Amino acid sequence: MKRILIIATGGTIASTEDGAGLAPTLTGRELAARVPLIDTLCELDFVQPMNIDSTNMRPHDWLRIAGVIEEAYDRYDGFVILHGTDTMAYTAAALSYLVQGSEKPIVLTGSQQPMASPFTDAKLNLYHSVLYACDPASRDVSVVFGGKVICGTRARKQRTMSFNAFTSMNYPSIAYARGERVVRPAGVAPAEKTGARPRFFDALDDRVIVLKLTPELRPSIFGLLAPEYDAVILETFGIGGIPDHDGSFQRAIFDWVESGRALVVTTQVPEEGLDLGVYEVGRAYAEKPGILRGDDMTTEALVAKTMWALGQTHDPAELSRLFYEPVNNDRTPR
């Protein structure tokens, strides 16, 4: 019988009402005890590194979770992380970079309604997550939610209340949970497992900010950000449009990267990605050294990957190499 470690971190799934709003109080063991038949799937163990609302999840918490997985990796066949939905996509992406090439599944799940709610989605999500973690073909970091299995670097919370809260962005779902079965797309053969250990990383640079372009945003914002941040992820208009009224935006962006800071260009449009070469208002940035292209990656993955890459190096050439190397299907190779 397989051994799965449940890593409980809080979130809606663990929340109860205390008169001041929902707050996480239940442990992982208490949550699993409320899910019928889950104990027939495998042997479960539990650890609780934190019990927080996921709004309060921070990069140092991602490192704590990765550390728990590293310490327990050889003793378990898979891991299920119970997590709040609001920042789950960030944590799933971060773990994809902190634990690379895992042949054991690392599954994140949660719920839109607390486990104690009479209309909760928590029971099925937790059951399906353990089911998927027990499947011999499962591997790497993923989100299991609403019957879908999504790569950890491609998940995005798309809905605030519906049970199908998560969408796989610019990449197909890798599997589906149907009752007591895991169903995978036809013709997609799972990679052969060799028993190799993953690569674990323990450094992040959290001085990364997302800046969304809006009409009349002042380019002087880059000067204001410089003392506090090492990288800006710039969400442009459309397929890669950056304003060019008088050249001030280009000067501000070029000054930013020439100062040794990183700039990642992406789009604020959720689907289909970035192409700086299409319009004149984007082409000037396409080949500028120090400007990294987000292509079809999610903003959540870009935040996590930039933090991870800067945690390893600030050398521009090495940073570019790390950034463009695909990890857990995070980007469609050019």
From TrEMBL:
The Asparaginase/glutaminase C-terminal domain sits at: 207-323
Query: What CDD domains does the record tag this protein with?
Result: L-asparaginase_I (cd08963)
A single GO BP annotation from the record?
amino acid metabolic process
Q: What is the originating organism of this protein?
A: Candidatus Olsenella pullistercoris
Judged by the first EC level, this protein's enzyme class is hydrolase
Its protein name is: asparaginase
Q: What is its EC number?
A: 3.5.1.1
- UniProt domain L-asparaginase N-terminal: residue ranges: 3-182
